[in-house]
Amino acid sequence: MDHFDINELKVDFFLAGAAKCGSSSLAEYLAQHKQICFAYPKEPVFFADEDFESKYAFTWGEYKKCFKGKPEHRITGEGSILYMYSETAIKHILEYNPDAKFIVMLRNPIDQAYSFFLQLRHSEYEREPDFKIAWQRQPLPGRSILNYKDVVSTGAQLQNLLKLVSKDKLLLLTLEELIEDPRAMYLKVLNFLSVDDDGKTEFEVVNQAGEHRNALFKFIFMQVTNNKFLYKLAANTIRTLGISANTVNKFHKGKKLKKQSLPDELRQQMADDLREDVKLTAQIIGQDATDKWRDFKPAD
Could you tell me the pTM of the whole model? Predict the structure, then answer.
């Protein structure tokens, strides 16, 4: 990967996972805090060697441009949620900043996988329209984002993360916490990052599954996101104008997605596929995940 220099830019914390677990909402809340400089785009993915489809910053120069520091900022962070899935990103981050802090958000992996599939269908990275077929197909080579079981196997990913990161540098959260009491979760994050409570009490959901407003919006969105030059130009313009990520999402996702429920048979199959990884997750977070994730609750 390209060189990096902490003397030119110090990023203090990384929202490193997991996909479709509420990270966009948390990133938006933190970006609004006056003491925090947060990356735009949220996911530069600079420290991952893999050429993930969402990767934005391929060089140190491009990475630095993702941050617009101000005198009142006390810490700097970013939210590349594929870092935990990457084979190399955490290692590179710690080479860059050995004192880096990491935040990881978790969710029932069955719902996570389906939500991630719908997002990739929306962006046309996923061509298979049938989620069951996509889940059951043979894994693609390497760290492909289309390997859904690998992407949502957060127990194994956390185990690898903790081989490199001490527990005092890691904050684990769940989407359920965000839904049940966003203020309490937000305060937990601020305390972990050692920044002041800004009194925030309104917590709007960001980056919900949605559909393009119409065919024209879809065409424009796909042209921009699939062209690195246009994507960088749009991101730089949005950052310069100070437009929030939530506003951008609302603009191009004009229609709420009509999400169909997964058949019980498929949920059971996915639960069987993921059961051992969920057990590992429960061991790491120190609580029984089946309390919230009913698919994995043992039969009476």
Answer: 0.86
